[in-house]
Amino acid sequence: MIVRELVRRLSGQFKIFLVSDDTARDVVSVLGQGVIHGHFSWPHGPKAPPAARHALLAWLQKKKVAVVHFHCGGVYGWGYRSLFFSLPVLCRRMGIRVIWTDHSVVPITYGYCGPQQRLVFRLAMLPFVWISKFLILRSVEKEIAVSDHDRDILCARFAPFAGKIRRIYHSRLDEGLPELLPLVRQNHILNVGHV
Known about the structure:
Helices cover about 35% and strands about 15% of the residues. With about 200 residues, it is α/β, with parallel strands linked by helices.
């Protein structure tokens, strides 16, 4: 729903390109024909091999993309463990402006090394975790958290970059939104954020 709303609002002023694990058919069925100017299939998730990252970068360059928005389920993603070769860092090197969204702020090592790891191992990983995020934050124009709570945690953890970190509620949409929804719907329960 968020992607559909963003595309609806921005497509009149910008050419929109989408990178997702969706098929071209799914993209058209959700967004409609001709709404976006291109789709790059990305079945790799945030831990893509180097060849996939280079293919995406070449595609972005060919399409003359000026701004990339990386949408993440957590604080890390999109090749963060590659340090100087993560997608945000590589995009910035190419002159593409980067915006990053975190949908969840979790314990600092989560996503870098699992909570099942011994405490000593997680503590040993902290410098690498912080350097990874440091490089991402240095590369982005803004990092968006989806709540004041998450923004405050990010600002405290990564204080040198607190000025780049903002909050935009991800579940606040226009009053006109119901017109986008199908007329007949099944009942669903959605988890839209943190309390």
